[in-house]
């Protein structure tokens, strides 16, 4: 099993979700996150005082998937989240040892 | 006074009352999430405290009959002897001015003033500064002609229709004194102290604008042409001030901001307050546009001089109020330098009035704040300030932003009894 984590632009979240559902994904965990990369932050001005705002709002999507699906899902996310501009985000995949469905106690692949 | 006048003054009083909650939201939106309730409360509690003072002795101190030109009198404690539509509606109307003036000061004290100390400051400052200054400016004497018994500024010929000196210079000078006593907030200049809710700020500015028609047009104390003049001029100046502020921002910062539009409106309202019945509509546009631009620049003073006037009470109310009052020396249709024989007499009087009120208010506010600070402590502990004044001083938070943090267990009085009910003596339930 694999954990796919994607940090994307908030306004791309709807198209990522639609693309993942079309692929057959049935669930995911979504968190509002903030951070920065090469894009850095932005400047805001209040009554003439400039503030350098370091953190940019992002959405973090997490899915635990079967090993065979991981690469395809990464593809789906990259295609649907891409704008081609700086700040599009990152996707990464990591190994998962154990998964348990809380309701039934099912384990691993059966719990996905 | 005919019935229509009494009706207009009472409606105006209600409009002016609405300005103080409006101010609370104007200020409340500008602070961070952790201080919004305290900011709202500093204004709201002022409504309560000053109303009590006003009924007990405030009206008497400001407008009670006496020959003094500096002080009202002692005859009207408990509003004793104040009766009839004209007098009572005037007492109600002037009460609302006495409320909003100290409330204006709170903008300089964001995030760091202990609540009890603030209440004490409001009680003392309103008593020894606002009530006498209201007499100087708003008491037209026994016959209402600025003769016997009138306040010394109005008797001398100073023009202040609705309180450019008595309200705005007065509050702005006091705000400067108190923020000097309190010192800068932890992290000032380093931490981004961004407004947490700019829509609140605009909403508050809109409520202020709406209520200000009562403030300015109501100061005619009659439903007549003077009131209508003040009404039109108030609108003209405020609109021009929004434009003035936004032009400065567009040129200096690149973008016109929502906060700037709201601030410009308030700057224009402040500046036209002393002038609204004495200038032409075009004169009002001039005062407004210049006040908007001037205040947009003046709010930068605190960075240069290093005082933490958190929400720019000095930059908007002291500067705007002084500008509007002094501008009358040029633009007043009766006595202004541009209209009346090039005589600078009015200009001199207006300047003296601004300086007199500013000096009196600044000096006494400084002493009051220092004494309160020495006796009970005005400034919040640093740890509480960083954690947030709402929690430290009110045991509340403004918003429940995260559902996971929304739980908790009720404790203290009224909490559900979690333990099993007590059983009769000697037997213990299994």
Account of the protein in words:
The complex is a heterodimer of chains A (112) and B (430). In chain A, 21% of the residues lie in helices and 37% in strands. Chain A is an alpha+beta fold and 112 residues long. Chain A has one domain (2-111): Alpha-Beta Plaits. Chain A has a four-stranded antiparallel β-sheet, covered by helices on one side. A two-stranded antiparallel ribbon of chain A has the order 3-4. In chain A, a hairpin with a 2-residue loop joins strand 3 and strand 4. Chain A is elongated, with a radius of gyration of 17 Å. The model of chain B has no long low-confidence stretch (mean pLDDT 93). In chain B, 54% of the residues are buried. In chain B, helix 3 (84-105) packs parallel to helix 6, helix 7 (198-217) runs antiparallel to helix 8 and helix 10 (281-298) runs antiparallel to helix 12. Classes of the chains: A alpha+beta (112), B mainly alpha (430). The A-B interface holds A 44-53 and B 192, 194-195, 249, 252-255, 257, 259-260, 263, 296, 299-300, 303, 312.
Radius of gyration of chain A: 17 Å
Largest sheet of chain B: none
Number of helices of chain A: 2
CATH architecture descriptor of chain A: 2-Layer Sandwich
User: What about the largest sheet of chain A?
Assistant: 4 strands, antiparallel
- Uncertain residue ranges of chain B: none
Anisotropy-based shape of chain A:
elongated
Q: Just give the CATH class of chain A.
A: Alpha Beta
Q: Helix-strand pattern of chain B, N to C? A: HHHHHHHHHHHHHHH
Total domain count of chain A: 1
Number of strands of chain A: 6
Overall shape of chain B: globular
Helix content of chain A: 10-25%
């Amino acid at each position: 099993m694999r954990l796919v984590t994607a940090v994307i632009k908030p306004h791309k979240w709807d198209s990522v979700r639609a693309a993942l559902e079309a692929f057959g994904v049935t669930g995911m965990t979504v968190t509002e996150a903030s951070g920065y990369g090469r894009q850095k932050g932005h400047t805001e001005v209040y009554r003439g005082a400039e503030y350098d705002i370091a953190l940019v709002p992002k959405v973090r999507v997490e899915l635990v998937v079967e090993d065979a699906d991981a690469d395809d899902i990464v593809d789906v996310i990259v295609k649907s989240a891409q704008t081609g501009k700086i700040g599009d985000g990152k996707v990464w995949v990591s190994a998962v040892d154990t998964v348990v469905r809380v309701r039934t106690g099912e384990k691993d692949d059966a719990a996905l | 006074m005919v019935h229509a006048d009494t009706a207009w003054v009472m409606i105006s009083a209600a409009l002016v009352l609405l300005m103080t909650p409006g101010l609370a939201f104007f200020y409340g939106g500008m602070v961070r999430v952790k201080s919004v309730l305290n900011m709202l409360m500093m204004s709201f509690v002022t409504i309560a405290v000053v109303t009590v003072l006003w009924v007990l002795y405030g009206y008497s101190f400001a407008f009670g009959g006496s020959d003094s030109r500096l002080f009202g009198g002692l005859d009207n404690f408990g509003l004793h002897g104040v009766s009839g539509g004209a007098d009572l509606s005037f007492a109600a109307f002037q009460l609302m001015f006495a409320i909003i003036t100290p409330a204006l000061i709170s903008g300089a004290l964001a995030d760091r003033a202990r609540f009890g100390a603030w209440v004490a400051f409001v009680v003392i400052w309103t008593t020894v500064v606002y009530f006498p200054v209201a007499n100087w400016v708003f008491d037209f004497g026994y016959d209402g002609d600025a003769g016997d018994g009138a306040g010394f500024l109005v008797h001398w010929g100073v023009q202040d229709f609705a309180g450019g000196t008595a309200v705005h210079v007065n509050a702005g000078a006091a705000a400067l004194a108190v923020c000097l006593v309190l010192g800068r907030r932890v992290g000032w200049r380093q931490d981004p102290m961004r407004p947490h809710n700019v829509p609140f700020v605009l909403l508050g500015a809109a409520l202020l604008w709406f209520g200000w028609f009562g403030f300015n047009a109501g100061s005619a104390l009659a439903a007549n042409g003077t009131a209508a003049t003040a009404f039109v001029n108030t609108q003209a100046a405020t609109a021009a001030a929004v434009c003035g502020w936004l032009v400065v921002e567009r040129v200096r910062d690149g973008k016109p901001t929502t906060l700037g539009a709201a601030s410009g409106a308030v700057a224009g309202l402040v500046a036209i307050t002393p002038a609204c019945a004495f200038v032409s509509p075009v004169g009002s546009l001039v005062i407004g546009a210049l006040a908007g631009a001037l205040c947009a620049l003046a709010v930068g003073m605190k960075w240069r001089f290093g005082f933490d006037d958190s929400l720019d009470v000095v930059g908007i109310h002291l500067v705007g109020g002084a500008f509007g009052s002094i501008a009358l020396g040029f633009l007043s249709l009766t006595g202004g330098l541009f209209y009346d024989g090039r005589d600078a007499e009015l200009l001199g009087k207006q300047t003296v009035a601004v300086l007199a009120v500013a000096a009196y208010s600044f000096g006494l506010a400084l002493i009051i704040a220092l004494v309160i600070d020495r006796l009970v402590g005005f400034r919040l502990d640093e740890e509480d300030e960083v954690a947030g004044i709402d929690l430290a001083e009110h045991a509340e938070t403004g918003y429940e932003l995260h559902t996971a943090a929304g739980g908790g267990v009720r404790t203290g009085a009224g909490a559900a009894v979690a333990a099993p009910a007590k059983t009769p003596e000697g037997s213990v339930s299994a």
